[in-house]
Amino acid sequence: MKVNTKPYGLIDVDVRQKIHFPYGLLGFENLKNFVLLDALQQPFYWLQSMEVQEIAFVLIDPNIFRPDYTPDVSSADLEPIQLTPDSKEKMLILTIVTIPEEQREMTANLQGPLIINRDLHIGRQCITENENWKTRHKIIEELSQVRNSAC
């Protein structure tokens, strides 16, 4: 299928890349259908709205820079996307990245992860119950801490 995207213009997308968010995303509740795209710069992804070309989010797997990350969301939040807290193998967990002018200051929202049912291609933005996770975790700073602790 063809999709107009913010980062790449009109492209062909496999139907398996389509993700339905029945509740939309926080602040974008009216947008329900997105496609998940690989970004040119790894380890990032694009979540592109299928309804509004100008709406696209940069995403990252939070475990890349926070190996201790767990979303800690309620069963009630997972139920609409047919998951349980124990069905981790069926979950794709991504977080929204904010990239300011000074790119080294980019942050990830670990408080509001996107949880996607890999099998059914439906997702939900949830709010974590873990108070350690905030809306602005500095990716570069935390990644360097992970690398330093591995040495």
Descriptive key words:
single chain; 151 residues; mainly beta; BH3618-like; 9-stranded antiparallel beta sheet; 11 strands; 11% helix; globular
How does this structure look, described?
- The chain has 151 residues and is mainly β.
- The protein has a single domain, classed as Roll (BH3618-like), CATH 2.30.290.10.
- It has 2 helices and 11 strands; from the N terminus they run ββββββαβββββα.
- Strands 3, 4, 5, 6, 7, 8, 9, 10 and 11 form a 9-stranded antiparallel β-sheet that branches. A two-stranded antiparallel ribbon has the order 1-2.
- A hairpin with a 5-residue loop joins β4 and β5.
- The longest helix is centred in the C-terminal third of the chain and has 12 residues.
- The chain is globular.
